[in-house]
C-alpha cells in the first residue's frame, strides 16, 4: 500500500490533477490487476449477506416506500433495466440501486468496517448490481467492480475521519461506488476522476441522521449515496465535469467540512499491480444492531448465568472505546437512548438498551428485540436505566489499532450487585468476527440467508439464488438477473400501505 498525504490547498498552489486524491483513486480503479480468489469468495459471501437482510426487511415501511418509488421509474433505452428486490420487472438502474439499498440498510444488519471512520461497505453492492444488470455486464466484471468499491471505501475509512466534524459516513460511499462502477464498466481514468468528484460533492451531509431521534433516513442515506453515484457516473460518461480538486480545494471538503488547512489525512491505496484485498478486513453482523453492539450482545449472553437474578443488579458500567461511548453510549448525551417509545433506529443506537435486553433474553432478534412491547417492559426499563458507559483509553487505542490481532470493538462489563458483589467480564470482538469464537464463513452466510428468508422466499427460490450467487463470477453478459430474488406474493401483500407521493 502507498500512503498518500492529503490536505487542503490554496487555489494559488501548484497542485496538478495528477496529485488529486480523486485522480489517485481513479488510477486504482483502472488498474487491471486480477482479483484474488479469497477476495472474490468474500464478495460472494457479502452478496448473500445483503440478500439475507433484504429478505428480513422487505415489508418494512421504509423499504416498501422505496420500492414503490422505484417501480414508478421504468428504464430507458440505454439498457434492459435492473431488478427491484422481491418483485418482477425491471426499472431504471439508479432507482433499483435506491430501493435495494434501502432494503439492505434498513435493519442495520450487514457488513461493517470501523477505523478512523465508520462504514458499511456492503452498501456498494446494490448500486453496482443494478448498473451491471442494466448494461448487461458479466459476473467477472461485477466482482472486479466490487473489489474496487470495497477497497476505496475501506481505504478512505482507514485514513479520513468524518464524524469528528459531524459529517455522515456515506461521504466515503459516493466516491467508492463511482470508482467501482468505473472499474466494472471499463471506463477511462479521466471519466472516473470526474465521477468521483461529482459523487463526493453531492453526498456530503451532516450526522444528524444518526443523532437524537433517529428516523428512517438512516436507512435511506446510503441508498441515496449509491443513487447519486450512479447518476454522477452517467453524467461523467457524457463528458460532464466535477468540482476540483474536490477534497483538497480551497473551498473543498477538507477545508470547510473536515479538518481545515491544518489537517493532513493519510490515505492508503494499493500501488500499481497490487491486488485489492480490503474486503477481507471487513466483517458482518450476527445480530441486527449497530456493529459496536455486537460484542456487548455476546458478552451479555455469556454473563447472564453468572449474574443469576437480574433484580439483584445495582448498576452496570460498560468500559469501552471513545466511539462506542459517544455514539451509542451515555457519552452521546441523548435522552432518547433511554426512551422506551423511541424509534427502532434510536434503540439500535443505544448500547444500554441492547445490553439490557440481551442480558434478560440471552438472545437477540431483528424484530422482537425492538418491539414496542419489548422496550416498554417495566423490568427492562428498570435494568436499562442502571446501565452507563465510560470511555476507557485502552479500548479506544485498540479500536484504532492497525494490528488486526488487537483491533477490538468490544467492552468490559462491570456489574455491581446490591449485596456489593462485583461481576466483571470482557469481550474484544463479536463471536462472528474473523477472530471471534464462531467466525462467519460461507456456511454461516448461507444459514443467515435461509434463516432470514424463511417464510419470505420460497425454498426453491432460496436454493436457486444461492446456486447463482456461488457461481456469480461465471455468469455471462446479461445473466446477472439471476441475482434477483422473488418474494412470495402473500408476503408482499402484508406490506404496509404507504401514502401517495409525486411519482
Automatic annotation (TrEMBL):
Q: Lyase: is it a keyword of this entry?
A: yes
Query: According to its UniProt record, what is one Pfam family this protein matches?
Result: MmgE_PrpD_N
Annotated catalysed reactions: citrate = D-threo-isocitrate; (2S,3S)-2-methylcitrate = 2-methyl-cis-aconitate + H2O
The UniProt keyword set, sorted, is: Lyase, Tricarboxylic acid cycle
Q: Does the keyword Transmembrane apply?
A: no
List the GO molecular function terms.
Answer: 2-methylcitrate dehydratase activity; aconitate hydratase activity
EC number(s) for this protein? Answer: 4.2.1.3, 4.2.1.79
Which Gene Ontology terms describe the biological processes this protein takes part in? propionate metabolic process; tricarboxylic acid cycle
Domain MmgE/PrpD C-terminal, first and last residues per copy? 287-470
MmgE/PrpD N-terminal domain location: 19-263
Q: In which pathway does it act?
A: Organic acid metabolism; propanoate degradation; Carbohydrate metabolism; tricarboxylic acid cycle; isocitrate from oxaloacetate: step 1/2
> What is stated as this protein's family in its record?
Belongs to the PrpD family.
Please give the subunit comment from the record.
Answer: Monomer.
Protein name listed in UniProt: Aconitate hydratase
- Species this chain originates from: Gordonia desulfuricans
Amino acid at each position: 500500500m502507498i500512503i498518500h498525504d492529503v490536505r487542503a490547498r490554496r487555489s494559488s498552489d501548484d497542485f496538478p490533477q495528477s496529485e488529486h486524491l480523486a485522480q489517485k483513486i481513479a488510477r486504482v480503479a483502472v488498474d487491471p490487476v486480477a482479483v484474488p480468489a479469497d477476495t472474490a469468495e468474500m464478495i460472494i459471501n457479502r452478496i448473500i449477506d445483503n440478500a439475507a437482510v433484504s429478505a428480513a426487511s422487505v415489508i418494512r415501511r421504509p423499504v416498501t416506500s422505496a420500492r414503490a418509488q422505484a417501480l414508478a421509474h421504468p428504464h430507458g433505452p440505454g439498457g434492459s433495466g435492473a431488478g427491484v428486490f422481491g418483485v418482477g420487472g425491471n426499472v431504471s438502474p439508479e432507482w433499483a440501486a435506491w430501493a435495494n439499498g434501502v432494503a439492505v440498510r434498513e435493519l442495520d444488519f450487514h457488513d461493517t468496517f470501523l477505523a478512523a471512520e465508520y462504514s458499511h461497505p456492503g452498501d456498494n453492492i446494490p448500486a453496482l448490481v443494478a448498473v451491471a444488470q442494466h448494461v448487461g455486464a458479466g459476473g467477472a466484471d461485477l466482482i472486479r467492480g466490487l473489489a474496487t468499491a470495497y477497497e476505496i471505501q475501506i481505504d478512505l475509512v482507514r485514513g479520513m475521519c468524518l464524524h469528528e466534524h459531524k459529517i455522515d459516513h456515506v461521504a466515503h460511499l459516493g466516491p467508492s461506488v463511482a470508482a467501482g462502477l468505473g472499474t466494472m464498466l471499463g471506463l477511462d481514468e479521466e471519466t472516473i476522476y470526474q465521477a468521483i468528484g461529482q459523487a463526493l460533492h453531492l453526498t456530503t451531509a451532516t450526522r444528524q441522521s444518526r443523532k437524537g431521534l433517529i428516523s428512517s433516513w438512516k436507512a435511506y442515506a446510503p441508498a441515496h449515496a449509491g443513487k447519486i453515484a450512479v447518476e454522477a457516473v452517467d453524467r461523467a460518461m457524457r463528458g460532464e465535469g466535477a468540482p476540483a480538486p474536490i477534497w483538497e480545494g480551497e473551498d473543498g471538503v477538507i477545508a470547510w467540512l473536515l479538518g481545515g488547512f491544518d489537517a493532513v489525512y493519510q490515505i492508503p491505496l494499493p500501488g500499481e499491480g497490487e491486488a485489492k484485498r480490503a474486503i477481507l478486513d471487513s466483517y458482518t453482523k450476527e445480530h441486527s444492531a449497530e456493529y459496536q453492539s455486537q460484542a456487548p450482545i455476546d458478552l451479555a449472553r455469556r454473563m447472564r448465568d453468572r449474574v443469576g437474578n437480574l433484580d439483584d443488579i445495582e448498576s452496570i458500567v460498560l468500559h469501552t472505546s471513545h466511539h462506542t461511548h459517544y455514539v451509542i453510549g451515555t457519552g452521546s448525551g441523548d435522552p432518547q437512548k433511554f426512551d422506551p417509545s423511541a424509534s427502532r433506529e434510536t434503540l439500535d443506537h443505544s448500547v444500554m438498551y441492547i445490553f439490557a435486553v440481551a442480558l434478560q433474553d440471552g438472545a437477540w432478534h431483528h424484530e422482537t428485540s425492538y418491539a414496542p412491547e419489548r422496550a416498554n417492559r417495566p423490568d427492562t426499563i428498570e435494568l436499562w436505566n442502571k446501565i452507563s458507559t465510560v470511555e476507557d483509553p485502552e479500548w479506544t487505542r485498540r479500536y484504532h489499532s492497525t494490528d488486526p490481532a488487537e483491533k477490538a470493538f468490544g467492552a468490559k462489563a462491570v456489574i455491581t450487585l446490591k449485596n456489593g458483589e462485583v461481576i466483571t467480564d470482557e469481550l474484544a470482538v463479536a463471536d462472528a468476527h474473523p477472530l471471534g469464537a464462531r467466525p462467519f464463513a460461507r456456511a454461516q452466510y448461507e444459514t443467515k440467508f435461509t434463516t432470514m428468508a424463511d417464510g419470505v422466499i420460497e425454498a426453491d427460490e432460496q436454493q436457486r439464488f444461492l446456486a447463482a450467487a456461488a457461481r456469480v463470477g461465471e455468469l455471462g453478459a446479461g445473466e446477472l438477473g439471476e441475482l434477483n430474488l422473488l418474494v412470495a406474493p402473500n408476503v408482499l401483500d402484508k406490506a404496509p400501505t404507504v401514502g401517495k407521493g409525486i411519482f
